[in-house]
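[Q] Does anyone have a clean structure-token version of this?
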Amino acid sequence: MTLRDNTRVYSHRGLVCGEAHGSAPWAVHRYVHSVESNDLAPPDAARRSVVLSSGVELSVIDNERNEASRAWLLVHGLSSNARLWDGVLRRLTAEGDRVIAVDQRGHGHSQSSPSGYEMGIVADDLAELANSLDIAQLFLVGQSWGGNVVLECSARHAGLASGVVGVDGGFIRLKDHYPEWEACWEELAPPVLEGVPLQRIEQWLAQSAADWPEEGRRGTLANFIVREDGTISPRLSRNDHHDVLAGLWRHEPADALLRTTAPVRFFVADSGDADRRVQRRSAIDALVVQGGSRVDAVWFEGAHHDVHAQRPDDVTAALLEFAGHHS
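[A] Here you go.
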């Protein structure tokens, strides 16, 4: 990874080492279940810790294709992590591209944030990471909340991205459904999963994600720390989840789109719910009209919200098609 002097990087492959969180390696091995041995990075990439100028430490997965002329910065959604991009990362790597998947602050192996999770703050994290790369062409891709983050990043940093893709995100405006923040939190607060047996989560995944490739299910398991007693703890704390959701609730994607000069494409997951489809199509069509010729949308029929983990072949093909039009 080519980085400017004000950004420090640590790299490691294989098993967990404690550098990324300032802890001793033995502590990680002591408290983490063996499933963690597979959750650092896929075979063709390395896990890195990047310290931003703010002092926030982000953990990223980098395929280290430093000679590539095109790069992809892949960004996960709320309460998710970089490993859900494994399938897409592997396929883009096969195309010869540079690919970096980031754990956003508070998520995965990245540090929690004392300065909050307002959209501008997390968007600037991505911009600093992107600006540290020596690359000719960069595409920002974010899923769900991450879609809004990459759109805001492009809006705040003109000329940074050659294109922006929101994977079932980027168009999310929670105020349309929850005019009051308190109602939003009451409805969307996460379930309490602390202490739930890992086996129960694995059973749930086997049923709810039966049509996913194994790497997608493994990526979901990487959302959790698995303790010695076989129970889990979410990597994103409940307080941080609250603050991330509040930042998303305050975000105005239409405003961000107005400030964005890069081409934008929305990948929309259509689960088959007719009422939801009508509501989403109305909102997304309005954004497409607002953006004019530089904004469009592609619908994925029968897709899960985590379509990037469920259907990495389809998502990768759509990303390459988008890049082909804007290279």
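[Q] Thanks! Anything notable?
[A] The chain has one domain: 8-325.
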